[in-house]
Amino acid sequence: MARVSHLLLHLRCGRLSSLQIPLFGSPYNLRLTSAAAVAAARGFCSNGSSVLRDRILLLSDNPASIATDDKEALRSAVSPLADQLLALPDGQDLAAPLDSGSFSALLLCSPAGFASVELLSRLKSRPLLALQVFNWRKKLADAGIPMLPEEYSKAITLAGRTKRVDLAAELFFDAIDVGLRNACLYNALMSAYMYNGLIKKAVSVFEDLKQGFNCKPTIVTYNILLSVFGRSLLVDHMETLLQAIDDSDLSYTITTYNTAIAAYVTAWMWDKMERMYR
């Protein structure tokens, strides 16, 4: 928070061009001066007085709005970079847009790392490109900007979409090895396996999560497994899972209902479909 407050203060005073942000761990420090500062500010400022900058300044006057408004500000800042990357042809070197310094600066803004999650989301239509960006992002983690579980989760899902399930599993274990154990990682790997028709592996990941101590299945986890069973017409397994949700402290979401209804329709179980709808 101190670093973010420092950034907001300099933005308020209009002195971003002289701001020094330690983007890399010792002995590497990046000084944002002159052209580098302009590049870093590009995500925040347009013609010297951006609406985005005004919104960020507003956050310092209204702390209660930080959680929502700061994310919206970062989304606006990430959007031009996403558009620039999506305009590149396949195989293009990403160094120019990513090494400019602006995205590195955004990674440090609160909530830290959110900009990367947002960028990967915006690049999902080109999963191979998104995975290239993720690999670049990992280099910054080695240099002192920690990764989020959600970043790995996005990359695991993207790997599944490209049918690279081995890569999805590799990324999952990489995240676990660096101490980022989180239910979202299990959910992403289950989704990758489900997308590629590997039902047994998806169920195995679920069982591993159930036996864990540091994190437990969420309703998203159950929804994924419901979808796995529903697509395979394993209605008995699906109903056992629904009972497990009922016996837990979790609540159905609209996805839970829709998934069960779709499974009953596929299995021609009209009465059960109607009961679930009601």
From TrEMBL:
Coiled coil: none annotated. Pfam families: PPR, PPR_2. One of its GO terms (molecular function) is mRNA binding. The keyword Flavoprotein does not apply. PPR repeats lie at residues 182-217. Signal peptide: none annotated. Gene3D superfamilies: Tetratricopeptide repeat domain. Keywords: Repeat. This is PPR repeat.
